[in-house]
Amino acid sequence: RVVGGVDWGTTKDHRGVILVMGKSVQGVRYVLEESVSAGVLVRGRNLLEDSWTKRALALRAKWRIDTFYCDPARPENLRILREANLEVEAALNAVKAGIEAVAMFLHVDQNALENAALSTRLQVLDSCLETIGEIRHYHWREGSKKEEPEKAMDDTMDALRYALYTAEERGEQNRKANFDFG
């Protein structure tokens, strides 16, 4: 099963992201590809212009993406993607619960380590450099009265949270996987 996570990157300090995630038949989640950029429109002004719609269509064709789970803050963007015949849903945006779900998949399994198997149930392909960098720097905001992440270098982390947490909460992790990435 392959899904996309989409963070719109609506300000100059936050880039837009489409993150492609696969689920293997063993239940391991893989970050397969990332498309990260600032200043990309959802719909281009002309047919030749780069847009998130064109990127999403290309990624769906390449990976057979079932559903794109998108940042719910921009419903007009979801409408535009739906007009392009993409399967799009507003992602669940429970930040703390979403981060906890991602952390659960990143938890190191000591038994797997001892058996020389994959150490976590979330793997990131080494070509996804932005995601790897953001995972390393992602942290809770210091001095805040509530638990919330630092809102810097978090674009792929938001897309990851949208895809992983939404699919898990909606029970879609139980659907049959399309590929065996293992």
Can you describe what's shown?
By secondary structure, the protein is α/β, with parallel strands linked by helices. The chain is 34% helix and 18% strand. It is built from six helices and six strands. The chain has a six-stranded mixed β-sheet, sandwiched between helices. A hairpin with a 5-residue loop joins strand 2 and strand 3. The longest helix is centred in the last third of the chain and has 15 residues, at 155-169. The radius of gyration is 16 Å and the shape is globular.
List key phrases describing it.
34% helix; alpha/beta; 182 residues; 6 helices; six-stranded mixed β-sheet
Structural class: alpha/beta
How much helix is in the residues?
25-40%
What would the principal axes of the Cα set say about the shape? globular
**Helical stretch count?**
6
Q: Order of helices and strands, N to C?
A: EEEHEHEHHEHH
Computed CA radius of gyration, to the nearest angstrom: 16 Å
> Biggest sheet: strands, sense, closure?
6 strands, mixed
Low-confidence stretches: none
* DSSP strand tally: 6
Strand content: 15-25%
Order of strands, widest sheet: 5-4-1-2-3-6
| Average residue pLDDT | 81
Distance between the termini: 13 Å
Question: How would you briefly describe this protein structure?
Answer:
By secondary structure, this protein is of the alpha/beta class. The chain has helices spanning 52-63, 75-83, 95-106, 110-114, 129-137, 155-169, and strands at 2-7, 16-23, 29-37, 67-70, 88-90, 122-124. Strand 4, helix 2 and strand 5 form a beta-alpha-beta unit.
